[in-house]
């Protein structure tokens, strides 16, 4: 295929996403009587999360995934972990270079490390198979494989997002609130340790003071910095570490019990066990109506997700204090630098024979590095009530830039793998 044909194949899914997202954005405005208002988006998001997405994942996995496939996909969890690790390092470097307000530190690291592993891959990757002249084989086989890869990517991304990213945003949000409460937010961040998040605001005759739960910490009168008295520091640190381990473990287990993760598990189970598969897959299967019903529900996932994407991005039109240099740095780090590193990693793994021979699998692995930030970051910012407007602005501009970046990367990968 020539460059123009590859560009057309790569750009069509992106254009589809842009058109439907634009419709979602308009539906969230007064011109459509706020048809996609904040409350409606939250309700629709719950339906997508609890009903549509699990149905799509189960129907896809049960139909197209076998035990041999599961074993051959072992590199995908490693690849997703590397996207978070390398992206987190890039975000940390940007924070050190740009020295932004503590309010957006966690957002910068999260935006660079946490890619959209679920919504966009489920929309874009199967759509590549629908285009005529695609390099990944027969349309039906390609689409089933693409949905399976994208669904597995969604499940893995959700686990990493609700553990690593959640803790990244939470720790810096608590620290920011503590320093804001103590009215010492302008002091350089390096002068504070992790114990700063224990500071609480207490209003006393219009004067703010720091209330310390025990006598373990006192304040330095010059810089208003908590100082460890050393009486029970070891036990306190041990308890704090144990508390964090328990908290992360519980969050990890909670993510494993989410509907998409449960659907992934049962989809794998029904795909791997022949007699279970024969119960629901095929025209002669006694319970094939279950598979047909789940496929029908799953068909609503992609349009709803894309409409929600456009509706959520409208929040980024609000004003914020985030600097243009910060936005440009995030876009370069997330959409250009990270995919270049990912391409070398995937090609090296392929050369060493660590990947399946399916070129679509390699395409998905590289595209995982090129995805814009996960929309769940906005949910976490709302949860901790820190940097909501800044998060919306970051998402708006990164997704706007992703329209060009994803098209370019997809075209290049189609040329490279075809």
TrEMBL record:
TM region(s), chain numbering: 12-32, 44-62, 74-95, 148-166, 261-281, 325-346, 394-417
UniProt keyword terms in alphabetical order: Auxin signaling pathway, Endoplasmic reticulum, Membrane, Transmembrane, Transmembrane helix, Transport
InterPro entries referenced in this protein's UniProt entry, alphabetically: Mem_transp_PIN-like, PILS1/3/4/5/7
Superkingdom of origin: Eukaryota
GO BP term, example: auxin-activated signaling pathway
Annotated compartments: Endoplasmic reticulum membrane
Main location: endoplasmic reticulum
Any single Gene Ontology cellular-component annotation: endoplasmic reticulum membrane
Keyword Transferase attributed: no
Membrane topology: Multi-pass membrane protein
Similarity-based family: Belongs to the auxin efflux carrier (TC 2.A.69.2) family.
Role played: Involved in cellular auxin homeostasis by regulating auxin metabolism. Regulates intracellular auxin accumulation at the endoplasmic reticulum and thus auxin availability for nuclear auxin signaling.
Protein name, per record: Auxin efflux carrier family protein
Protein's organism: Phaseolus vulgaris
């Amino acid at each position: 295929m020539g460059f123009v044909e590859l560009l057309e194949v790569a750009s069509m899914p992106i254009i589809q996403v842009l058109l439907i997202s634009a419709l979602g954005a308009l539906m969230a405005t007064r011109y459509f009587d706020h048809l996609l208002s904040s409350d409606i988006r939250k309700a629709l998001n719950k339906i997508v999360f609890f009903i549509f997405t699990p149905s799509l994942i189960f129907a896809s996995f049960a139909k197209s995934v076998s035990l041999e496939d599961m074993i051959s996909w072992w590199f995908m969890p490693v690849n997703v972990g590397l996207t978070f690790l390398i992206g987190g390092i890039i975000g940390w470097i940007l924070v050190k270079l740009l020295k932004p307000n503590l309010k957006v530190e966690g957002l910068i690291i999260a935006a660079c490390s946490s890619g959209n592993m679920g919504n966009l891959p489920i929309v874009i990757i199967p759509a590549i198979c629908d285009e005529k002249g695609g390099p990944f084989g027969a349309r039906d086989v390609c689409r089933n494989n693409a949905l399976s890869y994208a669904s597995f990517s969604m499940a893995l991304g959700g686990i990493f997002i609700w553990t690593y990213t959640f803790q990244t945003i939470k720790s810096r949000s608590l620290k920011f609130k503590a320093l804001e409460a103590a009215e010492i937010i302008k002091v350089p961040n390096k002068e504070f340790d992790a114990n700063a998040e224990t500071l609480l605001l207490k209003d006393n005759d219009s004067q703010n003071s720091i209330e310390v739960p025990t006598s373990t910490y006192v304040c330095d009168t010059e810089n208003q910095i908590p100082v460890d008295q050393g009486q029970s520091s070891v036990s306190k640190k041990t308890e704090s570490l144990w508390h964090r381990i328990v908290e992360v473990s519980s969050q990890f287990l909670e993510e494993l019990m989410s509907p998409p993760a449960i659907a992934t598990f049962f989809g794998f189970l029904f795909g791997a066990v022949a007699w279970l598969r024969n119960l629901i897959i095929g025209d002669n299967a006694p319970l094939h109506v279950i598979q047909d019903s789940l496929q029908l529900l799953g068909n609503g996932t992609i349009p709803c997700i894309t409409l929600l994407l456009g509706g959520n991005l409208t929040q980024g039109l609000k004003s914020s204090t985030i600097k243009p240099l910060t936005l440009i740095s995030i876009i370069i780090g997330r959409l250009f630098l990270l995919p270049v590193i990912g391409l070398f990693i995937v090609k090296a793994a392929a050369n060493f024979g660590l990947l399946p021979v399916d070129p679509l699998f390699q395409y998905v692995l590289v595209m995982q590095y090129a995805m814009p930030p996960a929309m769940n970051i906005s949910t976490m910012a709302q949860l901790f009530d820190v940097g909501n407007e800044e998060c919306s602005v970051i998402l708006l501009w990164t997704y706007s830039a992703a329209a060009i970046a994803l098209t370019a990367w997809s075209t290049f990968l189609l040329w490279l793998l075809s």
